[in-house]
Design brief:
It is a single chain. By secondary structure, the chain is an alpha+beta fold. It contains 18 helices and 38 strands. The strands form nine sheets. Strands 1, 2, 3, 4, 5, 6, 7, 8 and 9 form a nine-stranded antiparallel β-sheet that branches. The longest helix is centred in the C-terminal third of the chain and has 21 residues. It is globular and about 95 Å long.
Length: 811
Amino acid sequence: MRLAAAFFVLCGLTAAQPSPSTPRTAHQLYDALNALRLDPASAYQIKPEHRIELRRGDAKISFDQGELIFFAALDNQITGAVFSGRGHILTLPRETIEKQQMARFLDSPILDQDFASAYIRFTDATPADLLHQLQAAGLQPESNNAAASRWEPVLSQLNAVHSLRIFCGTLLPTPQPYFYASLDGIATGPFDVVLDYMRPEPFLLGQVHTAAASTFYDVWASYKIPDAVPMAPDFRALHYAINTSILPDHSLDATATVNLRALGAGQRFLIFALSRALNIESVTTADGQKLEYFQNEDMTPQERSVRGNDFLFVVLPRPFARNSELSIQFHYRGNIITDAGNDVFFVGARESWYPHFGDSADFAAYDLTMRWPRKLRLVATGTKIDEREEADFRVGHWKTEKPVSVAGFNLGEYASSSVTSANYSIDVYANRQVEQQLAKRLANNVTPEIQPAGPRRSILGMNREQPLPPNPAIALKQLGKDIDASIRFYETYSGPFPFRNLSVSQIPGTFGQGWPGLLYISTYSFLSPDVQRRAGLSSTTQEHFSELVPFHEVAHQWWGNIVGWSNYRDQWIDEAIANYLALLFADMHKNPDHTLRVWLQRYRQRLIEKAPDADQPAGEIGALALGSRLNSSKSPEAYDDLIYAKGAWVIHMLREMLRQPGTNPDARFNALLRTLVTKYAYRSLSTQDLRREVEAVMTPSMDLEGGHSMEWFFEQWIQGTGIPHYRAEFTVHKNDAVAGYSIRGKLFQENVPQSFIARVPLYATVALGARPVLLGTVVAASPETEFHFTSPTSPHKLLIDPQLTLLCTTQ
């Protein structure tokens, strides 16, 4: 499933209110903002006794000694300043989860650091605040042309992105304060301080960081502040009509028409996701009126590929009244399809190959018309209406019957096989050859072992000799049968399959993705165990591609494509449920009472071990609620380790707690999942929503803190970090009063906060090889918890949670 949108770019739009003396076009105002430079006559010399400071959000920024120079005004508005000298910043995040992240990057939960320079942009009261303090200190502006010249390269590099933000702010009916500072920290180097009331989480601290030749944006802290009122949504997409031609060179020439409904916010700009590899040629209204737009302005194609972003900003001619509708047409070209060799193709930008408005919880209708080279076959989201030939091309038409949040396509020189059920059909597509890189690896007979990976983790260096060319199409029929079996299995938990057709298609690489009615499945999932082995996959990785990847993506047909998520903090729910259901399916069909335990143990091991590219064990890196923020320069693959491994464990623990004796011990768990699918269909499911629904079905034994609340569980396992370690000390005495044995001891809880609470089952073994017997459970709520049990036989040994109902380590 797609990751949350890049929140720093998309959500960081700002609100400035310059009042132009003469009307300007959108690009003229943007160019004027972009061309702003320092006013050499507005330089102030600050000394330690002057105490010039700003408080923005939870940050106190002081300018202790040096030179402060303001930008030149535009339409009587000052929108920036620079500082060089010695300053200081002090900030303490409000939330525990953010303090933990701050300490992870800075070795302290407090940002307390000197800086040597600052680049500052603002549309709030910053100029008035600074000028008032400067005047109160008796300081007068001076001229410094040399300093203004020295700052010229910095402004040329940094202004553009802020100019666009400030410009978009002029199109808002109500000003939204914005403050941005890039501080050159003495200890950390440059970092950002943001207070932007257009962001869902207005306050942000972070830094661009390069590690192992990759660039990351490390978010030190990002959260809401008390006085911030979330902005109302501006528009909602209702319908997409996309007409795409895939040319012989595999480039796209496309027209997309997006129908939107205004929600009454009065904004005059729209933000669409669109791959930087696609170039907009025109944006018009339904009546042909040209609209101004911004797409990586003033960049060469080379610059765009390196530092461009995948967003398109469209300027509307006027505000639109609530419930009014508008239609916008885009014409664009570019190439997002890569030839992986042997007529195997990789479709990149799968969620931004068309102008896409909204996020995972925005559902709309889609009408796709695709034109592609005749020798290939193409599959797409929706129900196929027709397909025909036109000279050297094929033309197909697909429509969605239910609203979806995203649409996609895949193509190749496919063979196919179908499975038909009463309510749906499954079509499986695969090439008769593998991608060229894999074919070379097989031929070269070089065999570094590959370790398990999450659905999106890249796996490199897989080389094995292959006597005969592998043919992914051989697996079509069996994979179709297995996917049909998984759908029937998932319907028990998630309700009827939500689409009439499911297309399953091969894609080169090592990941899977589940779009509505369309799966992208790695080549490795189509290969036999023998070919996988000769390709260099370890036995665990073979099981990953054969037992989990296809069926994880099938589960996304409900979890992600019907039930959406609110934001990056809630995406873990859909991923965790999809992954856990895939484990249950594998457990039932592959090796009952074995597969689930094996994968849970593997996931636990991934969480307690430190990956080679990470600075600490995955279980300590961050909370599930951090979502995409888990990947950073310190742990590039932490998202996979936490979301899939810990996420599956969280769902497993909920299932175990909800189980009750009877003919259907999973009745409560099944009811919970079906309620979620029904109640949150075509809308977002938040972590708070999930907690409320769990509380509605919780058992008395789950109420560890009273008040019929699961707060303890969600605070510890979703908002917290760490995996508890348990050990027990005990003594056994003959107890004639009960005709048995009295067992007394202590349960020790380590590696988690002292407030951590859990119900820990203790079992006894009475003879070598005998099945362990449950003594009872201990509610561990401190580092040491005493327990007392009686048993008819003397225990040989105590076992802590041998049934794997709790994510923990033991001894």
